[in-house]
Amino acid sequence: MMAVGSLYAAFAEQARRFPERVAVSAPGERITYAQLDLRARRIARRLLNHGVGPDTLVGLSCERGISLIAGLLGILAAGGGYLPLDPAYPDDRISLLLGDSGIKLAVGSGAAARRLAQAGVTVVPADSQPDDEVEDESARVILPEVGPADLAYVIYTSGSTGVPKGVVVEHGSVLRLFGASAPWFGFDEHDVWTLFHSVSFDFSVWEIWGALLHGGRLVVVPQIATRVPSAFLALLAREGVTVLNQTPSAFRQLIPAAIAADGPALALRYVVFGGERLDLGALRPWLARYRDTAPRLINMYGITETTVHVTYRPIRAADLAAPEASPIGVPIPDLAVTLHDPDGAPVPDGTPGEMWVSGPGVARGYLNRPQLTEQRFVAGLDGARAYRSGDLAVRTAAGELEVLGRVDDQIKVRGYRIEPGEVESCLCAHPDVAAAVVAPRDYGDGDIRLAAYVQPSPSVAADEEAEARLVDELRAHAADHLPAHLCPSNYELLGALPMTPHGKADRAALRRIGEAAAARAARDPRIDETVARIAQGVLRQGALPADRDLFDLGATSLAFIRIIAEVNQEFGIRLTGAELDGTASVESVADAVAAALDAALSHTAPTNTALSTAIVPNTNAA
To answer: Where is pLDDT greater, at 386 or 467?
Structure first.
């Protein structure tokens, strides 16, 4: 299989071996290898008539289903490379990708095809009905010779300058990924894979070709099942899936359903993790139920620029003894990973450094971005071309790699690599935004979301109703310009963004603001209600803005002391006022109350319930 020069040729080889075996199944439809090959050749014939050949970039925009896979194969059969244009992307994002890539031709279906046609793109249908004469002609069409160094696909990733960048990947890089990792897995025609991820996310490359290069079956997961763990679990059992590929955050949602006493029996041989940092502790319930052999759990660190996966590490139950680590193991045999300091010098084992990846998995570079390509694709220690990943890792005494984090501000959310600058650039384009910073917010259990910290323009900052409208407008603005995974979940409007002495956004201060906001959202609302009632009574005012300084609202030092005293009596705590961080607002006092109650509860024996009810206001207090 791996001796062939292109992905389509490798698929066609499997179609000759297993013509009647089902290649792809989706809700309500199935297609054999022979049928899929003929459908791909039909699409290829039309693309060839439009001048497609090796290294021609062609758009691909189809809903999840067999048409998506047929369209992808048709582009490759014609010698072109595919550029995923997710139908879920907003119009502005599609326009940006069309403009940056310069494509004028695409394969599409349904509403996605109509949208491209309206944008001036020539669209070849992916779901046309067969015709005997056309079928015969398609079967006889002479396809171009495609080699390992030819373009296979371009996938766009987030860009730090506010503009996404297209990663150019060749056929040989994908083919060698499966050839080099074959001894570890032993994939074959009996394996059943899921297409869980969008083709705009390079984890899909591993899913699609893991099935089609080995004669296996690819199960296209319907969108609703990707979001409902119980439905996805039922699909895994019903389809007899043997190879499951998941980001750790997605798998974490599946675990409770999978370990339920009445959960269905699964045929899984492997669960392969990728796309983001693996939290070992989150696997404890799964390992308690299934252990670490049936299925085997494999952690594979990777980057779009290095063709999906770079390293391999089986996860064992014994790893739970050190759950704080995130082991990624050893490089795939044909790749090398070296660790470097900020100046590019190698670091010794045991010292953190930036991972540089070299070998045949390294992509060609960034589409139409020669300067950026030169910055990130560099000469490694042995002179080989290497990619500077921006990820920090350490090599242990046992020779394994453990990933530590980023050397920059890049964020991983649900497997997507996100440059905050791209989201910030979008938000700052709104006329009522003076400045914006985007950062991750951790809600626990691996639930990482994007939070936007926004400084409104002066005219908006002086008007509470305008501030409320701005948040709604920013949500709509982001949805109109960014794909869903780049849209912030939360918006915090700040009078001024905290800055470091060097004039940069103080991300540590923003993280503290975010942690307080997350804790505020999770705590009992009666805390805030009670503090607000006390402050209103002391100040003899109506509703008070929760985030405004009480002194700006008319409080004197004596009034503030009275507020703190009544709060202490109400909740049975001992605040002094010194606990407040900056603003003396209803919100900050409530934060201090919640922290004091949490601290008191943590030092109370489980059998002592006195403080567990302290959160309930004392309505009998004088």
So the answer is: 386
